[in-house]
């Protein structure tokens, strides 16, 4: 008796109560007779069995009409009769059920029934979990998409494997009750085992492989099961098939046309994955129908021209003219190759008759680097439109298989997907799975079975699909779009395809992949296979197909003829983020002057008071924070500011003017150095916070301050994308230490430094990089200013001449601005200037650490008063400036070292002999102001002093520019640390000795005498 087990899924039903008892550690559940009205209860097994009258009544009722009892009893009695020995099958005496051999035999039969049902349920689950491993995904039929030809042992691929489940061939035609966790039955609740296996193979082992059973949400799993298991669900109307064919024609013939016209040009075509174009259009159609009206896309170079032409609908003549070697570049920067360019276009979606805006973000060959940029741009559009659920704006990211598996930024981007301040409410990822990375076999390119396994970290479903089955691809794309609209979560489509040519059209793949490319050479084109299929089905005729091909070929020829009229390349035609209200129609700034950055006293006082208080009543703050706020209040009363208050004033004043401010990075809410405290935490109530900055003014813009994940590459890319969306916002990223920006170097090099030159992309992102030699070791000292300065484009040998404001014109000509502010007021001014300029340039600020609380690093409110502005250079204002002709030495410096120099000068009583001048804006170099200072101290020798090592810091940048200023008539001497490999020493004693040494040199009047 004790071995009885029955699953609820086997004995499922509705409405009738059931009896349940436990014996031997197992549970037996049996439905009661409906006429008895028994309620659920627990009884020992022997008591129930011994109640012969109860079972007899159930049995008699069943004999009268099988519908009198629940289906579980019906199944029980049927199996007893069917399996009883001859002569006993028709036994009508109910008492026989409770006596001797018949009772024993019937119980054994019931146990077998239950075990068989359990086995079938396990089999169904095995297909749901592992069916994708045997799906027919490779169009070439030579590789396994999961890199393993092993067939999971729990999948029924041969009859002998039935034995794993205690079943045999005789069970194939037995019907089994289906569990509620499958939809393969449609309206049927039971199916023969043979049909169960057939339907499971059709759902999970054909041209679609579904990975989803790792998702820890029952509703989401059920939703996916229904989409792939329901019989007949993957159906297309004739009209839908014709649309699919037309899109496939456009995709294929576009590549063919380019191949005919420019056979020796690289274009990174889609041959082998032509289905990508109808796939993207299906996603967009389905998303548009769900309410999406803006789609932001990122992709590598393969297929970009085709996407521009047939998805975004860039004019073909604009694309074709890119292949003209005689095309002259407009004077808008260096430009970029045609398969790196982006595009922004608003058009009608013909399937939904709704307006839709499509944007393809320009990006370099660093493949996945564009991922976080797209996410940031998407988040920004959602934010400014109030689209908190992502119902209007969405993103699509396309990837190559090798890069998706190999590039760490993919993981970083996925990990941003559900963080409150970074989520875009679901991204559809499309992996163009070439099954090869350049020349590298996937078996030595990744350790995971699939290139898409990284998506499992965020429970994103993964749909693998054979790219040579267009209808399967379209269905998967529909489901992906519906998933995103329903659950607002990421989803991955793995298009398993191939490259008909090599890495590019000029490459020879047979060198390294001879067997693959022998098969590819034999492979029939997907357009040919699908057109023949539809012709055979009678969906289209051969004539209609040929007419559609000829129609598109004619469009291409006409565009080709028109493209010959283009003589100049206008990069502005390829903008992915136009700011139509910011620039003139010609793309120029509307003025070339900067509004004043000074502020009224009442504004300063109001912001200061809010910054030093808690706007919410009954809010319990930490005593340490309370002391900080009291300190701020004292500063405000004395009309002084430290670094944190200067930043507060900059942000608050911009918010007053309707400028959104977003500060992001690791621990920025408090500040790494515990100086900021822009988010206050109630010490008594969990998750209760206060952001005083959002309580400054009644109709102010919103302030977003958010701690990021422990990522630099992904988060810097995200904030760059966010800044692309709106010029009237101050977007800042702060490094925990300036040194850490080096893990985001790809974004800095490829997008921030050169983005305007390559793609005419203005961007006003601000990087805050804590910098300074304070004995904290080589990883917490230098933000590597030399790297930023090396990438500036101003000419060291030429002093520019401008007719207007020198400082504004110089900023307009540069690629980015590099500053090291030494006062809170100057920091405030430069942040305000960033928005008040009539154009946008990236701003790199080397921010302090020790100066955050340095008693001398203070500013007065007068330094921010009306009429004041950012000081590119701060001259000496002490005794030396009163008698410049008597000054023997002028020390130019930047940043924190000024305070050490000033202290040393005072100690040595050299205030009249040595002038100390601070360069606050390093790049573009303030030639005009430096010239004035050099002329003022005409008799003095010139020193450049820095705390960084000689081969680092600013020296290599400033030296040639100083020599240009003095026309090489006098030298500029270096004072600082000697050259080194590491940015700083990790030994405190060594650090202090180095500092002492160069301080002595700086003020030794004979050190540079002949």
Task: Provide an overview of this structure.
Its cofactor is thiamine diphosphate; Mg(2+). Its EC number is 1.2.4.2. It is found in: Mitochondrion; Nucleus. The N terminus is likely disordered. 37% of the residues lie in helices and 14% in strands. The longest helix is centred in the first third of the chain and has 31 residues. The chain starts with 17 loop residues before the first strand and ends in a 7-residue tail after the last helix. α3 packs across α4, α7 packs across α17 and α13 packs across α21. It is an alpha/beta fold and 1010 residues long. Among the domains are: 337 residues, 3-Layer(aba) Sandwich (Rossmann fold), CATH 3.40.50.970; 93 residues, Rossmann fold (3-Layer(aba) Sandwich); 131 residues, Multifunctional 2-oxoglutarate metabolism enzyme, C-terminal domain (Rossmann fold), CATH 3.40.50.11610. The strands form eight sheets. The protein has an eight-stranded mixed sheet with strand order 6-13-14-12-11-7-10-9, sandwiched between helices. A seven-stranded mixed sheet has the order 20-17-21-22-24-23-29, sandwiched between helices. β18 and β19 form a beta hairpin.
